[in-house]
Amino acid sequence: MLSTMMEPALTITSVMNFAKKNYPNQEIISVTADNPLHRYTYKDAFQRVGKLANALVELGAKPGDVIGTMAWNDYRHLELYYGISCSGMVCHTINPRLFDEQIEYIVEHAEDKFLFVDPLFVTKIEALQDKMPNVLGFIVLTSEDNMPETTLRNVHCYETLIADKSDEFVWPELQESAASALCYTSGTTGNPKGVVYSHRSTVLHSYASSMPDAFAFSRNDVVMPIVPMFHVNGWGIVYSAPMAGAKLVMPGPKMADGKVLTTLINQEKITMSAGVPTVWLALLDYLEQSGESIDSLKRVTVGGAACPLPIFKTFYDKYGVEAEHAWGMTEMSPLGTYNKMSSQDRELPEEEFNQKLLRQGRPIYGVDLRIVNENGDELPWDGTSSGAVQVRGAFVTAGYHKQQADFTPGGWFETGDVAFMDEESRMQITDRTKDIIKSGGEWISSIELENLAMSHPAVAEAAVIGVAHEKWTERPLLVVVRKPDSGLTAQDILKFYQGKVATWWIPTEVAFVVELAHTATGKLDKKTIRQWYQDYQWQD
Amino acid sequence: MLSTMMEPALTITSVMNFAKKNYPNQEIISVTADNPLHRYTYKDAFQRVGKLANALVELGAKPGDVIGTMAWNDYRHLELYYGISCSGMVCHTINPRLFDEQIEYIVEHAEDKFLFVDPLFVTKIEALQDKMPNVLGFIVLTSEDNMPETTLRNVHCYETLIADKSDEFVWPELQESAASALCYTSGTTGNPKGVVYSHRSTVLHSYASSMPDAFAFSRNDVVMPIVPMFHVNGWGIVYSAPMAGAKLVMPGPKMADGKVLTTLINQEKITMSAGVPTVWLALLDYLEQSGESIDSLKRVTVGGAACPLPIFKTFYDKYGVEAEHAWGMTEMSPLGTYNKMSSQDRELPEEEFNQKLLRQGRPIYGVDLRIVNENGDELPWDGTSSGAVQVRGAFVTAGYHKQQADFTPGGWFETGDVAFMDEESRMQITDRTKDIIKSGGEWISSIELENLAMSHPAVAEAAVIGVAHEKWTERPLLVVVRKPDSGLTAQDILKFYQGKVATWWIPTEVAFVVELAHTATGKLDKKTIRQWYQDYQWQD
């Protein structure tokens, strides 16, 4: 039987048209390299998006072409998001923090036709441009006055390029499954892998992530995404905030500057923000030092890495801000789970509350999540059974750009995380699949052992890796960077574990090092650390 | 370029599976004819939905078949919603308040194969069953103990039917555009017209209507839909509440019983409810008389008809409840606009605030709305330009079941409402297209004139219709039912309009009647009233 319902395509164009029509006067505030406080409205923004679309056509870009961006969170980057995707092209956001070889690789692999570059990255791209033969031209995201001297070939100034274009553009009728954006993961193994989002997945992710138990965006929110727009579409906020009619504040290159963030919060009356734990540390440090307050801020989302308890506590106890854990990844658009605490939760004994607070949260509708054991059998959500986390859904990738998909039967994506689900459907990540230590047929969480070591006052940083062991298959080796002048011994730290974990979890031995290895994005590079110890001989 | 994203079908089955997996212990509370307080969980519900699906197969129902329901808001009706739609059949909810001939017509037109009937409607259906030759059997929604004596042919008892069935069912992989449900509009002209919802439109409407600026459903909500599930899927709450993991309370046949509603609110800690103004009058009257309170209730949605100011005020001032206006219709799944007031709004001067409070609100994302003049030209959103309201979107119908679509170019659905949009994108309905009075090339709102007349203390009810006029094309005729023993004259009431509307809006003449005509759902039947005066001769 046929439904009588209309079936308009779910497109980013419809988000743009909706925001333009319903919220024309809502503001977008940006910090850029050339302007410490740029202010305009959705109406202004989408008029300029029309100009940009005309400019892209004039440059020779065609539907289906991939257009690269290397830029901070600001209004011009927002214009690129919409101008490129709504023209039927693919917006490829490039992470400037990647290693040079990775950047060269992905620009070539993605076949970027043009590259839009923040003035702050011009020098970087000048050095790399010869390794990017497929790029036809570069556009610097600035005005004529601020245009830097540059050796970039076929270079344009953004403002000059769009200045004389019409703001009218006949947006193409796109298929909802058409590619809209491309983002490469910065994995520690092999080359970066590209995830190609569709218009449909982007709209559905915007709906799902805006729900009251997730970002909860409303017209009355003033939202500052501190997560870079070169990370998974800035968690999709550049789409979901306009969909809700929220005011947007974008801190440009000042994302780790506690003072700028505080000024923006107070001046623009920011109600909600989102970022990684490092950003919140910078903000809280600044507030502590300056004695300033952040009264308008009601909630922040913390993702990208597990957030330490003191950040949650300081936000809530000192500033009345609800810090909310979220979990996701590039392959998931990114949001998978979100941890909203209820007023009933707040009545729990503190330790129990803290445990729940630190969890990664509940799956949002649109994400089907399960945990499985080594045989692929689904495990119960009982608060103890830990297994590999798999997901599927309308904003989860089925594979990588130009690669064969390598997923399990049933179309589940292997997240690489190990977790248990508690009886309230809150996920607690316990490790990464590749970092778990398999000892005597059981799993030991390297992360839990690392966190415990790091809570010792004499430890600056710690890693725990599994090293081959004749009897137990693997045993944990604790690798420690001591704090300066600390006399910490192996015995001290091993004793510190007693009573905190099962005896058989306690690392077998300790190695002291001056420094640990890190990835381009600052995470522990366990792969390299494992290589250091691949021939390690246990003492016993 | 190809996206790499998964494209699972958006289906009601996925809502069911999500709620079952993530919120198994969330409760569903019902009042039924046979149980004043039935209580179970989502897990229980969806296990019984599995049993029902097996029972449907055993009855001989096949994918694509239309299965009718005539029932109140309770857990068995919820089971039918999911069991029928997730089996690939079409759930046809029938409004028991329609005239008998309309019920016969729609059961035949929809080709219902089976009819599930609340015990309270058995007598009604017994009288009609001979006019429903295509219905193969009837199932009474009750247990064996409460099964009434009945002359219904091929009759089953619901509980007996599903009792011995397995709760395991292999749900079919449905196309998202497949028909899921069918609801007939109870228009005043011609036969009822059927709107066939799809799985896709239902999921998208659930997302859109759950957003923070609309129903704002969260896991912590306890939601009581008082809007009947035979009206546009109970405003979709039977889908959107489980999607959010909210607790559901369903008042069964007690929807106009202020005492039962109050008890449910206080006992189940209801936070949100939705219904038509009449329901709220019943609730507020009861509270006034009993002196009881409703402390857990935070917000109510008012739709289906324009809600008078005192309801909003009493809710907020006396009970701290935000009453929120919404607008939609069967053809829109139903939600089109929603009126959320902000804390800034509450700081406005009272008259200005009240004006905004009474508006129907802003379009939700997924609804593209415009107002047009008689030539079809789009009108500005300036707070004064009034025109016909047209909509389109992913949960708007493109036509009616078994009828040729008759929509305007561009695929816009004519809502039949006349409205202006204010500068904050809030819609104010001023009339129905067919009730507007065209005088001297200008439009006069019959509704505004009616509301003014009704605010006169001596008026019991009033209608204003356009009557043909040689010079002005049409002029307004005011038709009044006086309050008993009132000596109200035509001059009195016409004078009452002075200074309240433009002089040329004031009705030309007044007719006094003992009673006005009403539709089956209690609205003014303007079509009939216009027929009374089709040959009316103006005095002048």
Folded structure, characterized:
- The structure is a homodimer of 540-residue chains.
- Chain A is α/β, with parallel strands linked by helices and 540 residues long.
- Among the domains of chain A are: 12-255, Rossmann fold (3-Layer(aba) Sandwich), CATH 3.40.50; 436-532, 2-Layer Sandwich (GMP Synthetase, Chain A, domain 3).
- In chain A, the strands form five sheets. The first copy, chain A, has a nine-stranded mixed beta sheet with strand order 2-1-11-10-12-13-14-15-16, with helices on both faces. A seven-stranded mixed beta sheet of chain A has the order 7-6-5-3-4-8-9, sandwiched between helices. A four-stranded antiparallel beta sheet of chain A has the order 17-18-19-20.
- In chain A, a hairpin with a 7-residue loop joins β8 (179-185) and β9.
- In chain A, α2 (42-59) packs across α3 and α10 (258-268) crosses α11.
- Chain A starts with 11 loop residues before the first helix and ends in an 8-residue tail after the last helix.
- At the A-B interface, α1, β9, α7 and β16 of A face α1, β9, α7 and β16 of B.
Oligomer: homodimer
- Under the CATH scheme, which architecture of the domain at 12-255 in chain A would be assigned? 3-Layer(aba) Sandwich
The count of strands of chain A amounts to 25
CATH secondary-structure class of the domain at 12-255 in chain A? Alpha Beta
Radius of gyration of chain A in whole Å, from Cα? 24 Å
